[in-house]
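agent: user wants the full assembly modeled, not chains individually. Plan: 1) parse entity lines 2) check alphabet per entity 3) run joint structure prediction 4) return tokens. Steps 1-2 passed, two entities, 230 residues total. Proceeding.
--- entities ---
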Amino acid sequence: AQKITQTQPGMFVQEKEAVTLDCTYDTSDQSYGLFWYKQPSSGEMIFLIYQGSYDEQNATEGRYSLNFQKARKSANLVISASQLGDSAMYFCAMSFSGGSNYKLTFGKGTLLTVNP
Amino acid sequence: DADVTQTPRNRITKTGKRIMLECSQTKGHDRMYWYRQDPGLGLRLIYYSFDVKDINKGEISDGYSVSRQAQAKFSLSLESAIPNQTALYFCATSESWTGRNEQFFGPGTRLTVL
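--- prediction returned ---
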């Protein structure tokens, strides 16, 4: 069964510093996609970044980058130069190929707090 | 204007009442989803629809029903609400042709069942 694990319930970072949010996954599929979503206190789910399992380079979107280590089955999110507005809940999610390709499986999230 | 909208944004209801949550999208996506979010449990899939005539149960469909009235509209009903259905409900959309299954979420509906 496919599973996403986020082992950090909460993380703290100082403004302007970088922070890494951990995500590991378990699947026997060769083709899959990895996503990170941000959920601020207002509640909406905001897509941040995507990494395909066959992508050779790590994905980057502005201050967000995804550290993809396929052999270790990890897909950590790196936020550079943290800002106060980055304080939010962050979810790692995964989609799969084949018959279950409709589905996003989510981790339980990491609450990031950026301190001034 | 938001691409995925949900109404109502907040709702308080009583046990046993029927309630409908509505979702509309202007993204032109063919796939639509309903999730619920509970503290500490992440998001769980209730129902999903690949097109107007294709509706499927997700992992926690008991106590819920859905209707896909048009490609752009997907509603979720609680036939007889119970307190453990108190949660944050999200509608999401995606398009099948990309293969990425990137899902775009509405703003959420906060439902409280007393």
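agent: reporting back. Chain A has no helices and twelve strands. The first strand of chain A starts at residue 3 and ends at 5.
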